[in-house]
Structure formats: structure tokens, C-alpha cells
């Protein structure tokens, strides 16, 4: 956990409960994933827009393979060597970053970390931000909140 914080990794770790959430992770690699190439882009978030944001947030000279944006990659410390709280990862099924988010989840499982994946059909990246404007999104956001509550109760 200390290494993640030193690298500027932003994860939501509850102070009352020893758990963490990635809402949504937004992990990427320098090489585009299938979902980045094939999922529909939106005015809310395009791959090009995300690239600009990553270039502004990563250390100068870094690529998207940096451990902050690719904690499951070869530049990051091995996940099985980290002491992490139970983690909950959220993935929208039509999120442009879906593939790398699922890859992170699978890497955590392989490293014997306590991790759970919640998947939201028909939802894109940060879908919960428009919950008040879209009834379908509102239902999925309620499911997200329920998933968080169940995860916290479990741990």
C-alpha cells in the first residue's frame, strides 16, 4: 500500500473499513487494447482525451506503461508482493478501458489478492456520473451502491 501511495496511486481506501475500491480504475497500457480500439467513443470520454489526461498526470517522460496507469504491468512491483486490503473493481461493459481493467482484476486474482469484480452491462466509463439524467444509468448506479455496501459488509 505504501508503494501505491508513494507513486501517487489514487485508490479509495475506507478509513472505517479495511477495503479499497477502484471506481472505475481506468488502467491502460501504451499499446491500445481491443476495447480502446472497438468500443464507441463519447463526448464525455474519448481515447484521445484520455491520452492527453494521462500525459498531464504521469511523471515527465513516462508512458502509459507506468505503474500508476498499469499496476499489473512489467514496470510495476509484483502484485503478489504487495500487502493490499480487499479490493472491489468496477467495470462498465462498454467502457473503453474495460480490457485493461479486467486484466488488472485477473492479475490480482493470480497474485492471490482478495479482489472482486462488479460488471455493469451497457455501461461506459464513469457511468454513475449521469445517473440523474438517465433512468437506465440510475438503475445501474443503484446496483453499484448496493455492490459497495455488500462488499463493505463482507469485509
From TrEMBL:
EC id: 3.1.1.1
Gene Ontology molecular-function annotations: carboxylesterase activity
Top-rank EC class of the record's enzyme: hydrolase
Highest taxon of the lineage: Eukaryota
InterPro entries reported in the protein's UniProt record: AB_hydrolase_3, AB_hydrolase_fold
Keyword Mitochondrion: no
SUPFAM superfamilies: alpha/beta-Hydrolases (SSF53474)
Keywords annotated in UniProt: Hydrolase
Domain Alpha/beta hydrolase fold-3: 28-128
Signal peptide start-end: none
Family from the record: Belongs to the 'GDXG' lipolytic enzyme family.
Protein name: Putative carboxylesterase
Amino acid at each position: 500500500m505504501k508503494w501505491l501511495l508513494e507513486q501517487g496511486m489514487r485508490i479509495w481506501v475506507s478509513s472505517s473499513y479495511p477495503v479499497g475500491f477502484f471506481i472505475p480504475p481506468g488502467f491502460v497500457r501504451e499499446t491500445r487494447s481491443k476495447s480502446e480500439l472497438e468500443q464507441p467513443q463519447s463526448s464525455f470520454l474519448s481515447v484521445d482525451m484520455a491520452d492527453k489526461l494521462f500525459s498531464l498526470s504521469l511523471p515527465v517522460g513516462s508512458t502509459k506503461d507506468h505503474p500508476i496507469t498499469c499496476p499489473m504491468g512489467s514496470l510495476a512491483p509484483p502484485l503478489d508482493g504487495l500487502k493490499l486490503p480487499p479490493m472491489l473493481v468496477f467495470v462498465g461493459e462498454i467502457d473503453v478501458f474495460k480490457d485493461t481493467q479486467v486484466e488488472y482484476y485477473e492479475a490480482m486474482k493470480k497474485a492471490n489478492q482478495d479482489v472482486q469484480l462488479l460488471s455493469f452491462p451497457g455501461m461506459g466509463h464513469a457511468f454513475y456520473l449521469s445517473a440523474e439524467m438517465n433512468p437506465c444509468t440510475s438503475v445501474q448506479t443503484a446496483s453499484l451502491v448496493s455492490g459497495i455496501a455488500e462488499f463493505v459488509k463482507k469485509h
